[in-house]
């Protein structure tokens, strides 16, 4: 157990059709809380960091936090760099010890995306790390990366050529999903996940998970979405939990930061644990 490669976590999830939460953390509290939830629920966990978080905290500090908090942990966990279009940041994180990266070259023409992804996969293999790939932008902006323009889907034969040529370990398709909060119920292309998996069996990453219904999660996971990304939901939980506590503190005129941290931590653990139960990863640590 403990810190393991991404593919070790996803191989069982894909084979047995459950989803593993891939949660974007942004400080020490959220990192410690999602790890605590994984231990509490006996669930594997993918911890993600955005480029914005890497740059604001520093890869060295982040990785020191990671190694300290995962020392002796009894469930399988892995550290993943989310949506990163910057090759220099990918290299920096791989050198530090990140277990996997998402090279986001979705704004490039497919041929150039494919060429560079081949290079990233080769680089990652040198560190014993894995790579998530994508050839279509996921609608929405997350931590400064992305676009609000609706994503266009590539033909299945283009997708398969990308997968076979690059050798990525996980693929993130556009299926009508979006980053951020959905303004209306999304119309998802469930069949596209099934078509890709049938033609090229490999774990699929579901982006834009915050705000999907329980039924949508279960359906997509059953089709092969083994990695389920959660970012906005954690940010909202962190901020709203903090706001609620601070409003109460203002009324009582009691100012105790450790009490704030404990309260927010409990809420983050509760949210993360409920996702593990919903996705079917609870009790799967082994």
UniProtKB/TrEMBL annotation:
Its cofactor is Zn(2+). It comes from the Bacteria. This is Ketose-bisphosphate aldolase. It comes from Streptomyces polygonati.
């Amino acid at each position: 157990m403990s810190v393991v490669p991404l593919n070790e976590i996803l191989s069982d999830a894909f084979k047995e059709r459950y989803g593993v939460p891939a949660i974007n953390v942004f400080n020490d509290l959220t990192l410690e809380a999602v790890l605590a939830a994984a231990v509490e629920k006996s669930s594997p966990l993918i911890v993600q960091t955005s480029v914005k978080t890497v740059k604001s905290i520093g890869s060295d500090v982040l990785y020191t936090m990671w190694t300290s908090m995962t020392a002796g942990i009894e469930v399988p966990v892995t550290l993943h760099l989310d949506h990163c279009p910057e090759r220099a940041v990918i290299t920096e994180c791989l050198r530090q010890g990140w277990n996997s990266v998402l090279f986001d070259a979705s704004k490039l023409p497919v041929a150039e995306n494919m060429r560079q992804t081949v290079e990233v996969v080769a680089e990652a293999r040198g560190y014993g790390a894995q790579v998530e790939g994508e050839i279509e932008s996921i609608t929405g902006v997350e931590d400064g990366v992305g676009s609000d323009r609706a994503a266009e889907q590539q033909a299945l034969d283009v997708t398969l050529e990308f997968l076979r040529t690059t050798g990525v370990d996980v693929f993130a398709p556009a299926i009508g999903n979006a980053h951020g909060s959905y303004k209306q119920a999304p119309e998802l292309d469930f069949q596209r996940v099934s078509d890709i998996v049938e033609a090229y069996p490999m774990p699929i990453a579901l982006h834009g998970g915050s705000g999907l219904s329980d039924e949508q999660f279960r359906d997509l996971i059953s089709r092969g979405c083994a990695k389920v990304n959660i970012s906005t939901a954690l940010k909202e939980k962190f901020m709203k939990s903090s706001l609620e506590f601070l409003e109460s503190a203002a009324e009582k005129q009691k100012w105790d930061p450790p009490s704030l941290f404990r309260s927010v931590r409990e809420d983050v653990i509760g949210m993360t644990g409920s996702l593990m139960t919903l996705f079917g990863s609870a009790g799967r640590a082994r």
